[in-house]
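re: ur question from yesterday

yeah so i grabbed the chain u mentioned. its 630 aa long if i counted rite. heres the sequnce exactly as i have it in my notes:
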Amino acid sequence: MEYPHLFSPIQLNKLTLRNRIVAAPIGELYEPKARGGAGLVVCGHTIVEPGRSSFASGEEPTAFFKYEVEKTRQKIRACHRYGARASIEIFHAGQYARVKDHAWGPCSLIREDGVEVKALDSAEMERIAGLFAEAAQQAKTLGFDAIFLHFGHGWLAAQFLSPLFNHRTDEYGGSLPNRARFPLLILRKIREAVGPEFPVDMRISGEECVPGSIPFEDTLAFIQMAEPYIDGVQISAGLDINHEGNVHMATTNFKEHMPNLKWARTVKKTCPGLVVSVVGAIMNPSEAEQILANGDVDLVAFGRAFIADPNWPNKAREGRTCDIVPCLRCLQCYHIATNRQNVGCSVNPRYCNETLIPERMIPAEQAQRVVIIGAGPAGLNAAITASRRGHEVIVLEKSTEIGGALNTIAREYYKEDIRSYRDYLTNQFAQCDIDLRLNTAADRSMIEALHPQALIIACGAQPVTPPVPGIDQSFVMGFTEAIHHPERIGKQVVIIGGGTIGAEIGLELAERKGRQVTIVEMTDTLASQGNLLYRIALRQKLDPLTNFTALTETRCIQIGDHEVEILHQTEQRKLKADTVIIAAGVRTNRAFVNSLYGICPQTFEVGDALQPRKIQEAVFEGTGVALSIE
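ran it thru and got these structure tokens back, copy pasting raw so excuse formatting
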């Protein structure tokens, strides 16, 4: 077996897990994760105190409420049906709860939304600890194989542990033993309720990653205090509601892979009797196998990776690593990042679209000749899907290789995950019987000669060249040239356009190449196309750089002799520039797209050929239209 450590069994107390893979509690689809081969599936959460402990609604019931309990039981069945073990997260949001009246926390305060937070006294702590124990007992009685206690990410237990939240001066504040008093009470009552042989796992943030929060040394010391009551600990990071910490909980492409491993490794060395797991940007089976083989951890946990591909474990076990759909860490699946708009997965078009995209490919009733113009992410997904459904597929690509804009994006330093996705698509494409014609600039007569029965226009979009005087000079280049030929870029750089492309080019040039970078952006927001958490993570990378400046609400008037004349709000001035990079976005060639209508009845526009957007739309539309062709 290619990954012997990943697929070896392990004991969690008296529970045997078939492998070292944990599906973290993200999303509401648990059966696909069990069927996909995870050893332990954490099937969402239960709150412990209705009305005062939910992060979603003051109306949320516990998972064991009489009108919810059978639905909860079905989660257990879904896991056991495929040989996975089932766990459930036990949760209290504390001061961040959505409530009917007031919230509980370590300290009294009035939240920004006007809700009163009352400091817990010892009697209420005893009561709430009892509710945790009751939920644990109910989980055991219903048939869960383990429980998963959420003591991280800034929720109630973490609020007591962290000096960021806990400013008490009594026996529950100040020193770590005091701050740990209430969390340890919860653990003790849970262990008394479930007995010595029932598996108790606990998630905690190694660090919360914002100033004034708990240091790792305190986290480690608390884990040692908790060890008599728990069997396992999962090391995460960051905070949830605090967005500055959230980007370290659900990492973006600006964070390295496996950022929490350093803390998990130390916990394993310090507490060898605990089953230690780590979550966070473990992106492929090789990474997981290596840290298990090294003895760094005992289990590996996956959240967004299993949204991208719920069959990740089975594919790894079968030696089909190249068939695993890689997560981009774009955070489009996260409601906070997207403000609950356009939530989905960039690489799994079925996620949040279960009624639109079938789980299994349905063969076409009658094979059609499908011509696809363009081999970017939209065209490739359309071609792969159409071919697998049995259609005859011809792809016309004007460049020398497939991949489209992915080939340019993948060259950037912080686009390792994009490189993996491009390689995945290239591999999937190669497995299909597709007539690929490179170096072929399609036009109407060429397509007519192919007699398609369906035409998919996936020609992408072209860089915009703004009408700026002096833009045709030799020291001015487009963003594509800048990415492909960084050696042509001088010391002082002005980037015209601060969208995601311009911002990431600027970051890399300033941080990695030591260039002096100024971005000129017309709007009031840098990287406005990016979601909320992406922009925060980008800003956290840019803020420490002294050689980077972003001028928003600024317009480029003209480009002179190695200088750029700008209008910054009401101030007109000049910026020196060895190199000017144009990153003013991309635009669809509507005239070309419109010229292709009328060739055949089934004509579709997908991806940037329709309008410039994200990979998410390209993948969904390319896959979706290919599924509709009959």
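noticed a couple things. The first helix runs from residue 31 to 35. also DSSP finds 22 helices and 28 strands in the chain.
anyway ttyl
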